[in-house]
């Protein structure tokens, strides 16, 4: 089973939305103005502004880094159902950064973001079920979420779901489906997937 790439907390990108007050200022590098505008919008209930303000607080852009304050804004954005914020909060619970580590809470937030079709959360939720982290081990649910991510074009998820179809893990064994997903991953440059697709196709003949 290949390891799906993790999203590192310090590399979170701000949620780009041109209509959010403060975004143009941030793009110009005027962090002080962006912070003021994001905060005003966030106080008025703008979930994207709350998320962007949380990221600025986390990284110390426009003010001294303040993770406690960042967490307050992040939680507000997550509770307003912004999937980027829900996933980010799940990562914090998974790693224990700024909050007490809780794989159960991580799974809960990943699920909320995944239910909205957010690709990184689909991957992480699939892994939670595959490994039994923060939820009972369930290959069926792992396969479900990996396939969702694969359908969005994630090459790692395409390889993973192909492997699950090849071996019948969480799904009915289906070699044509396995070949199809390996081929999709191969088309994105995964050499290992290309070799697997060729080997399975040869065996199928």
Automatic annotation (TrEMBL):
It comes from the Bacteria. Coiled coil: none annotated. It holds the Pfam family Sel1. Keywords: Signal. Residues 1-18 form the signal peptide. This is Tetratricopeptide repeat protein. It comes from Chromobacterium aquaticum. The lineage of its organism: Bacteria, Pseudomonadati, Pseudomonadota, Betaproteobacteria, Neisseriales.
């Amino acid at each position: 089973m290949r390891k799906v790439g993790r999203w590192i907390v310090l590399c979170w990108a701000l949620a780009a939305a041109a209509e959010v007050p403060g975004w143009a200022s941030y793009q110009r590098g005027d962090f002080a103005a962006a912070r003021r505008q994001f905060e005003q919008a966030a106080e008025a209930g703008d979930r994207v502004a709350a998320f962007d303000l949380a990221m600025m607080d986390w990284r110390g852009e426009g003010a001294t880094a303040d993770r406690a304050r960042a967490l307050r804004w992040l939680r507000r954005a997550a509770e307003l159902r912004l999937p980027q914020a829900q996933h980010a909060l799940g990562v914090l619970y998974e790693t224990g950064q700024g909050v007490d580590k809780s794989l159960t809470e991580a799974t809960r937030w990943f699920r909320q973001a995944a239910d909205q079709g957010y690709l990184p959360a689909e991957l992480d939720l699939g892994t939670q079920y595959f490994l039994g982290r923060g939820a009972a081990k369930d290959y069926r649910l792992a396969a479900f979420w990996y396939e969702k991510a694969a359908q969005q074009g994630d090459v790692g998820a395409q390889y993973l779901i192909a492997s699950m179809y090849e071996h019948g893990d969480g799904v009915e064994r289906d070699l044509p489906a396995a070949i199809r997903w390996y081929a999709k991953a191969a088309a994105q440059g995964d050499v290992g997937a290309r070799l697997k697709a060729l080997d399975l196709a040869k065996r199928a003949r």
